[in-house]
Structures are given as structure tokens and as C-alpha cells.
Design brief:
The chain is an alpha+beta fold. Helix content is 16%, strand content 31%. The chain has 1 helix and 4 strands, in the order ββββα. A hairpin with a 2-residue loop joins strand 3 and strand 4. The protein is elongated and about 55 Å long. The two termini are 21 Å apart.
Length: 89
């Protein structure tokens, strides 16, 4: 795409209800897609945040693109293809 990075996050606020003293015990696991390719639109899923407490899942919350990434021109696509090939080599 036309950008090498994209801002990601939640489309809406994330709210959990639990006792205050337990908040520090929450485990976070970021699950994300490898080699995300353009075009990328606002709201497209790029992964999820999995929260758990004492081994019990609290939920998976989708992480989405917060900005557009359009497809680049032919030279950019060629360069990206070379970089992906070398990364997987």
C-alpha cells in the first residue's frame, strides 16, 4: 500500500466490569494477521485483543484499521513483493 504503517485500535470504547483489585491480574494477548496487504479500509479487521483473568477468557475484542491505506502504484507493488519474498526466504 501507500503506507508502511497504519493506526489500529477499537472502533468503540472497551469496558469491563470487575473488582478494582483484580484489574492488574488481567492477561492480554494480541492476535494479529501477518502480512496485511492494501487496500485497507477503516473498520477492516487486523486482529483481536484476547483478555483473560485467572485462565478464564473474558473475551476477544476486534482490532480494526483506523485509517485508509490505498493500493500503491506498480513500482510500490513490485518493491513490496520483493520485500515479502525476502522476508519469507
Amino acid at each position: 500500500g501507500t503506507a508502511t504503517q497504519v493506526r489500529v485500535g477499537f472502533q468503540d470504547d472497551l469496558t469491563l466490569s470487575l473488582p478494582r483489585e483484580r484489574a492488574t491480574a488481567i492477561q492480554q494477548h494480541l492476535l494479529y494477521r501477518e502480512n496485511i496487504q492494501a487496500p485497507l479500509h477503516v473498520g477492516d479487521s487486523v486482529g483481536s485483543l484476547r483478555l483473560s483473568l485467572d485462565g478464564e477468557a473474558l473475551g476477544d475484542f476486534p482490532i480494526q484499521a483506523l485509517e485508509e491505506v490505498p493500493v500503491t502504484g506498480w513500482a510500490g507493488r513490485l518493491w513490496d513483493s520483493i520485500r515479502l519474498y525476502l522476508k519469507n526466504f
